Automatic annotation (TrEMBL):
This is ABC transporter ATP-binding protein. It is a multi-pass membrane protein. Gene3D superfamilies: ABC transporter type 1, transmembrane domain (1.20.1560.10), P-loop containing nucleotide triphosphate hydrolases (3.40.50.300). GO terms for molecular function: ATP binding. It is found in: Cell membrane.
């Protein structure tokens, strides 16, 4: 997408609040009015109070032209009153504009953050495999403020600067057109300097925020794995890595800052030089009597005042270049097509049975043809209500196989059906609502124990939560926690043992009461007795449900309706425990080996 379009798209967010923004702009323009008119009372004081020129015609039309009103004392009072009013007005308006801008911008940041969050929720697992969490965090918490800059540092300053430049030019031109044109020559000069600097500014900013993303990702990963770093005494190594990331970021930051500073200094220089030329010409015209002392005062006042809007205009243009690169980082997320799409016309059936079929499924991580497949030609049929165990050596593809059921990925070839419907013909949210899942690494949220268990079924009553915890053999240890079910779990469940976390994750899956239950090594961290109790509860809870279970402990799945052995991504055998034992092949060898061990 063209970079200029990125800002246009960003404006669509701002356009949602066009009424509020218009009000804000009008208020800011009122402030501009006070600023622009500021030197005029001083001109009147110099020309008509201190000297003998008549007051300007416009003023006379306002206050009348009786001798009393145009007396020097009254004029002085009128001018002073205007100066006081404009000082108070400017202060009040600036206060209001700052407050309203902050409020509007915060809303915009919130809107953008929510859209990004919603899109992140839609994106598939492959997106998260490709992007680092720390970098995404940086985009969500840092880059999202580009919309703030768009309003507060670009739109508002650009409009108010242009209007005040126009108004000042109009007044200056009515005093002395030549001088006004010299003063305005600053604008094309600034445009030329921006044309020279915009590409390098854009590039260096893009690199700067990429490096910041890398640094954030490294810090995030280090914090999450601090125990491992300490256990392996790799603090020194990690510090060196950190130095590397920070030095790369510092270099990029310095380069971007230097380029921006170059542009800013050049524009300051241009403004200063043009100002000096105007002062020189104006002063010499004043000396020759071409313009009055009051007019020259207005002119000089505007020359200094001109710097403000010209400078904020150049900052606004510079910022727009910088935020274009940062907006791109946001639109990369918003435009990502790495979502799991439903087939057109996907509809939810009235109910879901749970008969599952893998039909000649090939799957791999990455692109077919460019990457090796992980699963080859998988064909499996699991009738409703049956329990199927997937076994096989580590890396055989067991977790990959079940990840296809929740459509974390789609097959390269072949299809998976539930009750005869292709998974892609079911709305994704409907499919996932009908699957309860326990992953190998049970993730707990920083919420209470009860909330963690009820995560997939927030309407569950406390009694139902308790019953699920009992089935998962979690109730007793939960009751020993300081606040029982109301105990707040610290981030990722760091204060619980691996087995405790697994049991909460199991309770969460049991409580969901979905027709399909997928358990990926759900009891790997549990002792044999607890495991046996959980499997007893499972056989009761799983009545009528289709259950997929992956386990390395083969004694737990002896009663499964079907056992499938995977090896190197292919089904090498399937059958019941007894039938597989009798073949003496892979399953039998693994089982016998575990019996001896
Ligand atoms: N996100 C991923 N991206 C690329 N390759 C992956 C990804 N996840 C798994 N793999 C690869 O796919 C293969 C199968 O992995 P999978 O996790 O399905 O095996 P598994 O049988 O469940 O292993 P284990 O018993 O150790 O859990 C492995 O070679 C693994 O390296």
């Amino acid at each position: 997408m063209k970079k200029s379009l990125l800002l246009v798209r960003m404006f669509r967010y701002v356009a949602r609040y066009q009424l509020k923004l218009s009000g804000l702009i009008l208020l800011a323009l009122l402030g501009v009015g006070f600023e622009v008119l500021k030197p005029l009372p001083l001109k009147i004081i110099i020309d008509s109070v201190l000297n003998s020129q008549p007051p300007p015609a416009l003023l006379l039309s306002w206050i009348g032209d009786s001798a009393w009103l145009t007396g020097k004392s009254t004029l002085l009072l009128v001018c002073l009153a205007f100066l006081i009013l404009s000082a108070m007005g400017s202060a009040l308006i600036s206060f209001l504009v700052t407050g309203y801008t902050a409020r509007l911008c915060q809303r915009l940041v919130n809107d953008l953050s929510l859209d990004l969050y919603a899109q992140l929720q839609r994106l598939s697992v492959s997106f998260y495999t490709r992007n680092k969490v720390g970098d995404l965090l940086q985009r969500m918490s840092g880059d999202v403020f580009v919309i703030y800059f768009l309003v507060a540092q670009i739109t508002l300053p650009a409009i108010t600067s242009l209007v005040s430049l126009g108004a000042m030019f109009y007044i200056m031109a009515s005093i002395n057109l030549t001088l006004a044109l010299v003063a305005l020559s600053v604008v094309p000069l600034l445009v030329i300097s921006l044309a020279v600097f915009s590409k390098p500014m854009e590039k260096t900013t893009e690199i700067q925020y990429q490096k910041l993303g890398d640094l954030s990702a490294f810090v995030q990963q280090s914090l999450a794995s601090m125990r491992i770093i300490q256990a392996f005494v790799r603090e020194g190594y990690m510090r060196k890595q950190m130095e590397l990331f920070t030095s790369k970021y510092s270099q990029a930051f310095q380069r971007a800052t230097q380029v921006s500073a170059g542009y800013n200094q050049l524009s300051t220089l241009i403004t200063g030089l043009v100002g000096a030329v105007v002062v020189g010409i104006g002063a010499s015209q004043g000396m020759s009597g071409t313009i009055s002392a009051g007019d020259l005062f207005v002119f000089l006042g505007y020359i200094t005042a001109l710097y403000g809007p010209v400078n904020s205009l150049s900052i606004a243009i510079g910022t727009s270049v910088v935020i274009t690169s940062r907006s791109k980082r946001l639109f990369d997320i918003l435009d990502s097509k790495e979502t799991v799409a439903d087939n057109p016309g996907a509809v939810a059936p009235a109910s879901l049975g749970g008969a599952i079929r893998f039909d000649h499924v090939d799957f791999g991580y990455g692109q077919p043809g460019q990457h090796q497949p992980t699963l080859h030609n998988i064909t499996l049929t699991v009738p409703t209500g049956q329990t199927i165990a997937i076994v096989g050596p580590t890396g055989a593809g067991k977790s990959s196989l079940i990840s296809l059921l929740s459509r974390f990925y789609d097959p390269w070839r072949g299809k998976i059906t539930i009750d005869g419907r292709d998974l892609r013909d079911l709305p994704l949210h409907y499919l996932r609502e009908n699957i309860a899942l326990v992953l190998q690494d049970p993730f707990l949220f920083p919420m209470t124990v009860a909330e963690n268990i009820a995560f997939g079924n927030p309407q569950a009553t406390p009694e139902e939560v308790r019953a699920a915890a009992q089935a998962a053999q979690a109730h007793d240890f939960i009751m020993r926690l300081p606040q029982g079910y109301d105990t707040l779990i610290v981030e990722t469940g760091a204060s619980l043992s691996g087995g405790e976390k697994q049991r909460i994750a199991l309770a969460r899956a049991f409580l969901k009461q979905a027709p399909i239950l997928i358990l990926d090594e759900p009891t790997s961290a549990l002792d044999a007795l607890t495991e046996a109790k959980i499997f007893a509860a499972l056989s009761r809870l799983a009545a009528g449900k289709t259950v997929f279970i992956i386990t390395h402990r083969l004694s737990t799945i002896k009663h499964a309706d079907l056992i499938v052995t995977l090896q190197d991504g292919a089904v090498v055998e399937s059958g019941t425990h007894q039938s597989l034992l009798s073949t003496g092949k892979t399953y039998a060898q693994m089982y016998n080996h575990q019996q001896i061990a």
